[in-house]
C-alpha cells in the first residue's frame, strides 16, 4: 500500500501530456519515498484511512455531506488495446463537512495519476489502496472543484482490437477513473471522447459536438440527468448504426454484425419491442421517459443479457439478433430482455437503491414489469407453469437448506456485492413480489409504485421506503409481511389437516427459537371425483381454518400449491399423498401437475415419499406428459433421485425400465428440443450394458435418432459419459473424440477434462492436485466440468478422498475466482456423493473451522443439503 503525498509534483496537466508525465511519475514517487524516509515522517497509513473497496461507513458519510455533484470527464482512446487511455476528470460538488479529508475512489494506483488539483491549486493528496485522499484544509465550504489527470485503469473497460465498452456495475467505475463510486451519490456526467477517426462512439447523453483532431475525432456529450456511477457508460469502436422512428422518438442500434440479412431480419422487431415497452411503461408509471435520447448497443459475448445504462442500453448481441431458426422461447426471451432493460429506466435508473443490498429490488421489479409487458404477446405459452418451473425448484434448492439467507442481506463493502447474487434473489424474490401483488391487488400495487417513483425520482430509496408507501394502500401489516419474507431467511412449514368439514393449515417456523409467521395467498385445489375446485386461502396466523365447500366436503386430495402460488415446505395429508402417487398423471391442468411434482419432490426430500415410488410414478407420467415444461421438470427430478436417493440395488432394478422410458420419450417427442431433453436425460442416467452400447453406437455415428441433431459439444459430452462408465473402449473413445474436434477452443477444453476421467487413479490424483494452482483454475467452466466427472456417482467411492481438499480450497477459490465459482465448485465437488462418510467429512470440516467466512459456510451447507438428506435415508 502506498501512502504518499504528491508534494512537489503538481500543477494541472492537459490530457495530451498525461502520458509523458505518467512515465516519469514512478521515478518521482520512489524519490519522494526516499525523501520522506530522510525526514523521518510516518509512512504508515493513518488509522482513520478508509478500507479498500467502498465500505458502507465511508459511503454513508459521503452521501450525507456531498451535494450538487457533477463530473466532466475526458478520455482519449487509442485504437490499440494495449496503449493507455488517458483521462481527465473535473469533479464539482459542495460539501457540508470540511473537518474531514475528502475520499475519492480510484483503484489503478499512483502510477496512473498525473496530477491532482483542488480549486485550481496543486493538492497534497495521499493515496491509499483504492482511494485518493484530499486534505480537509483544501476543501471549501461552498463550491469545490477537483481536477485530476490520470491514466484510466483497464479492468472495467473491456478493450478489444477494434472496440471497447465500459461495464461499471456494481462499483467498478473507480477501476477506470476517480469518482465517488456508490449508488446514492448521483451526479450529472458530461463526457468528451477522442477516438480513432473510423470509430463510432455512444454514451448516456446526446452527442452535441463532433470535430476532427489529428488522426481522430473528438465528440462531446451533453450533461446527463443525475445518475449513479454504475449507470454511466460509453462504448466506442467499429460499429454499424441503424436508426428508426417510433411514435415520434428516434431509436438507434449500434452493432457489429456483419451478416446484413440477419440484421435486416431482426431490425423491425427489435425497434418495435423497445417502442412498445417504453410506451407501456410510460402508461403504467404515469411518468414519461426521463433520459432524453434512446440508444442501445449490441455487444458480442457481453457479460450479461443486458445492462440498463440510461440512454445507452448494452445487450448481449446473441439475445437480440436471432437466427432464422429461432424458437418461440428465444423470441419470448428476447422480448423479455428488452422489456426488462427498458423497465429499469424507471426501476433502478430513475429511482435507484441506496445501497447494493437492495439490488434485488430493481431486478425483481424489472422482471415483474417485463412479464406484464411481454406475456400477452405469447398466448401459446403457459406463463404460470413457466413461472413455477422457472422459480420454485431453484428457490427451494437454497431456501430449504440450513445455508439459506434473507432476500435482503447485509453488505459491508461494495467489493462483496457479487456475492449477493443467487437463487434467493433471482428466484425467491420474484415469487415474493408476486405474493405482494396478490395481497394488495394489481391496482393498489400500481398506485403505490407510481407514488414511489414520483417521490424518489432522480434520487435513491430503500426497500423499506417502498414497503412504507405500499403499506398506506392496505390494512395489512406490510412491515411484518416484509420482515418475514424479505428480511428473514427460510420458508414456512405448512401442515394440512382436515376435520369435520373444515380444512386447516398449520404453519410453523423451521428455524428453532424464531417463531416467525408468514402471510401468504394460496390457491388451494380440492379434488372430488371428476371436479377440481379452487379455494383461495389467505394464510395469516399460526392456524388458518376454512370451511370446505359443500360439494367437496370429503375431497380425495387437497393440494395447497395446486394453483402455482403457495410457497413453503408443505406436509400433505396422507390421503392426498397416496392419491397423487397413484393419480398425478391424470390431473388435467398442466400447472396442477407441475405444482404436484414440485410438492412431491419436497415430500420425498423430507422422507414422506419413497425415492423408488417417486421415480416409478415419473416413468408412468412421462408416457403421457405432453407439456415440455413438465417433461423437463420431471426428468431433472428423476436424474437427481436416480443418482442420489436410490440405493444401488434399486438403481440396478429400475435402470432397464427407466432407459426404456427415456428412449420411448425420445422417439415420441415432436420437437427437437424435447428430443434432446430426453436424450440428455438418457445420457446422464444410462447404466445397463445395452443402454451404454446404444449410446456408443450413436456416438460412433452408426445409429441415428431421427430428428435429433447432435452438435460437436453433444458428441464430446457423449464421449465423456461413455468413458466414465468405463465402456470397454473408454481410452480409445476419448482419443478418437480428441481428433474429431474442428473447434480449437472445444478441443482444448476436452483435453483439459480428459485426465479427470482416466481409468488410472494416479492420473486422476494428478489432475485434482493441479487444481490447487490458481493458474490451472482460470478456465472455470472447464474446471467445473472435470470436477463433476471426477466426482461422478460411478466414481464416488474413489473420489471421496478428494472431498476434504476440495473444501479446504474453497476460500482460495473465492479469493481468486468469479462470483459464482465457489458455489459451482462446491456443487461439482459434492454432487456425486450420497454416503454417510461423505456427509461426515463435510460436517467435520465445518466444525474444524474457526472464524470461517459466513457466506462460504452457507455455500457449503447449500451444496451439501442433498448429500446430508441422502446420507440420512441410509440407503448407502
Ligand atoms: Zn436487470
Layout: helices, strands, pairs:
Elements: E1 4-5, H1 15-39, H2 56-65, E2 66-76, E3 86-95, E4 102-105, E5 113-118, E6 121-122, E7 126-128, E8 131-134, E9 143-151, E10 163-165, E11 188-196, E12 200-203, E13 207-213, E14 216-221, E15 234-237, E16 240-246, E17 249-255, H3 260-285, E18 294-299, E19 306-307, E20 312-316, H4 317-320, H5 328-344, E21 351-353, H6 359-374, H7 383-399, H8 423-440, H9 442-455, E22 459-461, H10 463-471, H11 478-487, E23 493-499, E24 502-508, E25 520-528, E26 531-539, E27 543-547, E28 557-559, E29 569-571, H12 574-583, H13 590-605, H14 611-624, H15 628-645, H16 648-668, H17 672-685, H18 689-699, H19 712-724, H20 730-740, H21 744-753, H22 761-770, H23 780-790, H24 796-799, H25 803-808, H26 810-816, H27 821-830, H28 836-848, H29 854-873
Parallel strand pairs: 2-11, 17-18, 18-20, 21-22, 23-29
Antiparallel strand pairs: 1-7, 2-3, 3-9, 4-8, 5-6, 5-9, 7-8, 10-15, 11-14, 12-15, 13-14, 16-17, 19-20, 23-24, 24-27, 25-26, 25-28
Bound molecules: zinc ion (ZN).
Amino acid at each position: 500500500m502506498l501512502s504518499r503525498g504528491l508534494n512537489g509534483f503538481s500543477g494541472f496537466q492537459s490530457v495530451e501530456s498525461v502520458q509523458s508525465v505518467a512515465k516519469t511519475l514512478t521515478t518521482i514517487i520512489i524519490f519522494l519515498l526516499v525523501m520522506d524516509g530522510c525526514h523521518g515522517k510516518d509512512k504508515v497509513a493513518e488509522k482513520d484511512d478508509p478500507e479498500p473497496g467502498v465500505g458502507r461507513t465511508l459511503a454513508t458519510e459521503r452521501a450525507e455531506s456531498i451535494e450538487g455533484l457533477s463530473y466532466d470527464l475526458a478520455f482519449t482512446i487509442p485504437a490499440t488495446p494495449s496503449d493507455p487511455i488517458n483521462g481527465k476528470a473535473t469533479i464539482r460538488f459542495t460539501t457540508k463537512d470540511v473537518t474531514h479529508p475528502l475520499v475519492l475512489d480510484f483503484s489503478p494506483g499512483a502510477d496512473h495519476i498525473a496530477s491532482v488539483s483542488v480549486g485550481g491549486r496543486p493538492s497534497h493528496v495521499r493515496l491509499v489502496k483504492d482511494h485518493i485522499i484530499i486534505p480537509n484544509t483544501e476543501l471549501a465550504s461552498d463550491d469545490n472543484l477537483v481536477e485530476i489527470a490520470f491514466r484510466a485503469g483497464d479492468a472495467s473497460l473491456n478493450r478489444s482490437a477494434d472496440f471497447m465498452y465500459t461495464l461499471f456495475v456494481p462499483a467498478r467505475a473507480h477501476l477506470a477513473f476517480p469518482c465517488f463510486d456508490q449508488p446514492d451519490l448521483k451526479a450529472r456526467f458530461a463526457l468528451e471522447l477522442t477516438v480513432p477517426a473510423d470509430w463510432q462512439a455512444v454514451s448516456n447523453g446526446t452527442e452535441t459536438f463532433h470535430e476532427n483532431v489529428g488522426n481522430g475525432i473528438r465528440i462531446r456529450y451533453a450533461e446527463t440527468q443525475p445518475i449513479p456511477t454504475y449507470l454511466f457508460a460509453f462504448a466506442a469502436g467499429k460499429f454499424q448504426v441503424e436508426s428508426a422512428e417510433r411514435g415520434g422518438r428516434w431509436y438507434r442500434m449500434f452493432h457489429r454484425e456483419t451478416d446484413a440479412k440477419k440484421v435486416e431480419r431482426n431490425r423491425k422487431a427489435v425497434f418495435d419491442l423497445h417502442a412498445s415497452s417504453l410506451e407501456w411503461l410510460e402508461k403504467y408509471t404515469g411518468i414519461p421517459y426521463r433520459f432524453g435520447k434512446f440508444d442501445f448497443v449490441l455487444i458480442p459475448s457481453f457479460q450479461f443479457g443486458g445492462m440498463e445504462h440510461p440512454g445507452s442500453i448494452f445487450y448481449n448481441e446473441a439475445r437480440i439478433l436471432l437466427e432464422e431458426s429461432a424458437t418461440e422461447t428465444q423470441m419470448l426471451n428476447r422480448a423479455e430482455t428488452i422489456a426488462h432493460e427498458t423497465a429499469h429506466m424507471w426501476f433502478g435508473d430513475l429511482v435507484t437503491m441506496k445501497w447494493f443490498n437492495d439490488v434485488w429490488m430493481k431486478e425483481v421489479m424489472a422482471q415483474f414489469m417485463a412479464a406484464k409487458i411481454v406475456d400477452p404477446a405469447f398466448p401459446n405459452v403457459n406463463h404460470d407453469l413457466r413461472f413455477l418451473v422457472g422459480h420454485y425448484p431453484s428457490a427451494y434448492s437454497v431456501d430449504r437448506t440450513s445455508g439459506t439467507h434473507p432476500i435482503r442481506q447485509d453488505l459491508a463493502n461494495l467489493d462483496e456485492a457479487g456475492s449477493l447474487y443467487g437463487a434467493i434473489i433471482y428466484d425467491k424474490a420474484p415469487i415474493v413480489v408476486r405474493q405482494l401483488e396478490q395481497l394488495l391487488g394489481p391496482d393498489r400495487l400500481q398506485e403505490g409504485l407510481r407514488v414511489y417513483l414520483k417521490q424518489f425520482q432522480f434520487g435513491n430509496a430503500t426497500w423499506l421506503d417502498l414497503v412504507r408507501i405500499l403499506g398506506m394502500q392496505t390494512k395489512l401489516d406490510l412491515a411484518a409481511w416484509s420482515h418475514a419474507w424479505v428480511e428473514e431467511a427460510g420458508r414456512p412449514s405448512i401442515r394440512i389437516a382436515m376435520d369435520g368439514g373444515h380444512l386447516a393449515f398449520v404453519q410453523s417456523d423451521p428455524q428453532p427459537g424464531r417463531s416467525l409467521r408468514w402471510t401468504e395467498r394460496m390457491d388451494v385445489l380440492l379434488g372430488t371425483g371428476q371436479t377440481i375446485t379452487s379455494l383461495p386461502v389467505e394464510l395469516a396466523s399460526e392456524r388458518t381454518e376454512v370451511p370446505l365447500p359443500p360439494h367437496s366436503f370429503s375431497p380425495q386430495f387437497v393440494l395447497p400449491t395446486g394453483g402455482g402460488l403457495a410457497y413453503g415446505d408443505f406436509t400433505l395429508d396422507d390421503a392426498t399423498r397416496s392419491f397423487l402417487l397413484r393419480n398425478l398423471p391424470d390431473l388435467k391442468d398442466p400447472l396442477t401437475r407441475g405444482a404436484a411434482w414440485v410438492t412431491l419432490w419436497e415430500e420425498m426430500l423430507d422422507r414422506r415419499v419413497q425415492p423408488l415410488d417417486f421415480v416409478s410414478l415419473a416413468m408412468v407420467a412421462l408416457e403421457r406428459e405432453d407439456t415440455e415444461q413438465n417433461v423437463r421438470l420431471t426428468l431433472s427430478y428423476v436424474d437427481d433421485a436416480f443418482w442420489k436417493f436410490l440405493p444401488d440395488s434399486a438403481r440396478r432394478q429400475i435402470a432397464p425400465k427407466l432407459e426404456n422410458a427415456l428412449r420411448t420419450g425420445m422417439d415420441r417427442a415432436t420437437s427437437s428440443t424435447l428430443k434432446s431433453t430426453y436424450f440428455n436425460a438418457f445420457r446422464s442416467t444410462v447404466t445397463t450394458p445395452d443402454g451404454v452400447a446404444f449410446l456408443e453406437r450413436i456416438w460412433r455415428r452408426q445409429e441415428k435418432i431421427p430428428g435429433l441433431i447432435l452438435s460437436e459439444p453433444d458428441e464430446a459430452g457423449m464421449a465423456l459419459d461413455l468413458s466414465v462408465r468405463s465402456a470397454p473402449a473408454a481410452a480409445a473413445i476419448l482419443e478418437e473424440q480428441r481428433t474429431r474436434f474442428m473447434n480449437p477452443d472445444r478441443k482444448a477444453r476436452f483435453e483439459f477434462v480428459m485426465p479427470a476421467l482416466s481409468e488410472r487413479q494416479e492420473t486422476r490424483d494428478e489432475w485434482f492436485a493441479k487444481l490447487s494452482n490458481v493458474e490451472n483454475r482460470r478456465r472455470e467452466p472447464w474446471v467445473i466440468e472435470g470436477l463433476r466427472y471426477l466426482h461422478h456417482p460411478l466414481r464416488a467411492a474413489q473420489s471421496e478422498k478428494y472431498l476434504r481438499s476440495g473444501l479446504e480450497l474453497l476460500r482460495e477459490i473465492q479469493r481468486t475466482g468469479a462470483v459464482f465459482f465457489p458455489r459451482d465448485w462446491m456443487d461439482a465437488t459434492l454432487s456425486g456423493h450420497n454416503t454417510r462418510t461423505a456427509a461426515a467429512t463435510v460436517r467435520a470440516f465445518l466444525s474444524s473451522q474457526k472464524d470461517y467466512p459466513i457466506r462460504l459456510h452457507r455455500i457449503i451447507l447449500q451444496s451439501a443439503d442433498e448429500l446430508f438428506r441422502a446420507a440420512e435415508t441410509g440407503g448407502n
